[in-house]
Design brief:
The complex is a heterodimer of chains A (408) and B (160). Chain A contains 20 helices and no strands. With 408 residues, chain A is mainly alpha-helical. Chain A has a single domain (2-403), classed as Na+/H+ antiporter like fold, CATH 1.20.1530. Chain B folds into 2 domains: 5-66, no CATH class; 80-159, Regulator of K+ conductance, C-terminal domain (Alpha-Beta Plaits), CATH 3.30.70. The chains are: A mainly alpha (408), B alpha+beta (160). The interface between A and B is medium-sized, with 24 and 23 residues. Chain B: This is RCK C-terminal domain-containing protein.
Chain lengths: 408, 160
């Protein structure tokens, strides 16, 4: 809240800090872009470098100073996801796509559960770790496909379908995670918490399904300025009410996006929300970096290494299964596996929710290290996927004739 | 969509339309942002695809060119001969050609296009060396001579 409440000289200092922080984050990400790196790890790196735990100038001492701004980042990331997400996309892909997505989730979530259990950080932590290592970064995946010029590849529809299945799963997973994060104890309390959450979700899903008329009229204005103010109001209000009734603000924001997606202004909101999401999400990633102590990173190096290994293997196996279902070849398997391995915003959101709920504090540095490694190594590996494709045994692909198109 | 164009939804990105062309596959990706990517993959599939990126505006203009809004080479061109740098050719006027219903003088053919109309084949009639007052009609086959470079200008000006 500091930034919003500050006045006078205090305000000047905080503005300088915030402006310098954003500028450093932006320039770092721009340098990274030239090497084909996504923005998320570089925004985090900027936070780590200018944060209180590393030598050199400290711009912002406490990530809590960015409080509301980073929460807005989280809300807008999920609002945008809810806005873009459509069940029709999922159903249009057909049974093969669902099977490929389900295989991906089964492999990576169970690998996450096994990893979480072997770390021994606690039962609630196991469930959160499963989500952190199980769900790809749809932001990095989509950007990667565009930049590697793979949109015309035979496996691209399948790959994006897997990401959509993951997004659907994320929404359900966030709802089910609620009693865990809410700290409910005993069967009765858990049931009450689940019931409250589910009731709220049902209400919002009903609003998304049948309320598009009234919501559309509420937002419907020809003026972009007024539309922006109103839809941000709706997103933040629903997220806030969700947080107040004990469902997370994240799922509230996602469903707010779903509600708006059904209205006549959806296309304009999709366009208008992007610059706002980019700005506040950058602050969210930056603030996450601020909270990371490199010393703490070192102490979770082994769990991070284990998680990265498990995820890399899980994703390649899931890629092979997916292309077998579709009858594609080894290069498609390598492309899918090494692209969906990227981790980013969702892992960081889950860790933020978990740490805020008072779960094991090691989840913070663990997720930071894990995301930093996979958000950087993932895209670099994806651009060299042909090296993996050559090493995949041919007998894994019973119908190589169908794999005609070899992608770059 | 017809059989020749395959359409696929790319969730979170946009839509892809692919068409099989000689020597490869052309795919057009229309992003939600309006950006268009044109992918050209060769049939062997061993080369990385060539990709062009266009803005919404550029894509619409290119689309108009591809659709023949600016120039349609559908005019029957049965004879085309270049004799010592001189081109002898004919073009057929359509009802919507800019020259249909206008006289040669009115069109200022020689001044505007540097081509000369030497004959008009109209049904079974042949008008040899037409007068400037001669009015061109839809369906006329107009025989012209001039420099090869000037042909396109003439086609634009008279045949459309």
């Amino acid at each position: 809240m500091g930034l919003l409440a500050a006045t006078g000289g205090e305000s000047g200092r905080e503005l300088v800090a915030l402006g310098a922080a954003l500028l450093i984050a932006g320039l770092l990400a721009r340098a990274g872009r030239r090497m084909g790196l996504p923005t998320i790890p570089l925004f985090m790196a900027a936070g780590i470098l200018t944060g209180p735990h590393t030598p050199g100038p400290v711009l912002i001492r406490d990530p809590a100073d960015l409080g509301l701004l980073t929460t807005l980042g989280l809300i807008l990331l999920l609002f945008h996801l809810g806005l873009e997400f459509s069940l029709d996309d999922l159903l249009a892909g057909g049974r093969r796509l669902l099977a490929a997505g389900a295989a991906y989730l089964a492999i990576n979530m169970s690998a996450g559960v096994a990893l979480g259990a072997s770390l021994g950080w606690g039962g609630r932590e196991v469930l959160v770790i499963a989500g952190i290592v199980g769900i790809s970064s749809s932001a990095i995946v989509t950007k990667l496909l565009v930049e590697l010029r793979r949109l015309a590849n035979p496996e691209t529809g399948l790959l994006l379908g897997i990401v959509v299945v993951e997004d659907v799963f994320l929404a359900i997973y966030l709802a089910l995670l609620q009693p865990v994060l809410g700290g409910a104890e005993g069967a009765g309390e858990v049931a009450a918490s689940v019931a409250k959450g589910v009731a709220f979700l049902v209400l919002l899903v009903a609003l998304a399904r049948w309320g598009r008329g009234p919501v559309g009229r509420l937002l419907g204005t020809g003026d972009d300025e007024l539309l922006t103010v109103c839809f941000i109001g709706v997103a933040v209000l629903i997220a806030g009410v969700a947080a107040n009734v004990g469902v997370s603000d994240a799922i509230g924001a996602f469903l707010a996006g779903q509600v708006v997606a059904g209205t006549s202004v959806a296309h304009r909101v999709q366009r208008l929300v992007l610059p706002l999401r980019d700005l506040f999400a950058a602050m969210f990633f930056f603030a996450f970096g601020l909270s990371v102590d490199p010393g703490a990173l070192a102490s979770v190096a082994l769990p991070v290494l284990a998680a990265v290994t498990v995820t890399a293997i899980g994703c390649v196996v899931a890629g092979v299964i997916a292309v077998r279902i579709q009858g594609l070849g080894p290069s498609s398997a390598a492309n899918i596996g090494l692209t969906v391995v990227a981790r980013g915003e969702f892992s960081l959101i889950l860790a933020t929710l978990a740490v805020a709920a008072g779960l094991d504090g090691r989840l913070g540095p663990f997720t930071a290290g894990y995301v930093l490694v996979l958000a950087i190594a993932g895209p670099l590996a994806a651009s060299r996927s042909h090296l993996l494709a050559r090493r995949l045994p041919a007998r894994l692909f019973p119908t190589p004739a169908l794999s005609g198109k070899v992608s770059p | 969509m017809s059989d020749q164009i395959r359409e696929q939804e790319l969730p979170g990105i946009g839509r892809r339309y692919s068409v099989q062309a000689d020597g490869g596959e052309v795919s057009v990706v229309i992003h939600h942002s309006g950006r268009r990517d044109i992918y050209l993959a060769d049939t062997t599939g061993h080369q990385p695809p060539a990709v062009a990126t266009l803005s919404d505006d550029q894509a619409r203009r290119l689309g108009a060119v591809l659709a023949g809004a600016y120039f349609q080479p559908t005019l029957t061109r049965q004879i085309e001969a270049v004799v010592g740098g001189l081109l002898i050719d004919w073009v057929t006027l359509r009802p919507d050609s800019p020259g249909a219903g206008r006289s040669i003088a009115d069109l200022q053919v020689r001044r505007q296009t540097r081509m000369t109309i030497v004959a008009i084949l109209r049904g079974d009639d042949v008008v040899v060396v037409p007068e400037p007052t001669e009015v061109l009609q839809a369906g006329d086959r107009v025989v012209i001579v001039g420099r090869p470079d000037d042909l396109d200008g003439f086609v634009r000006h008279v045949a459309g």
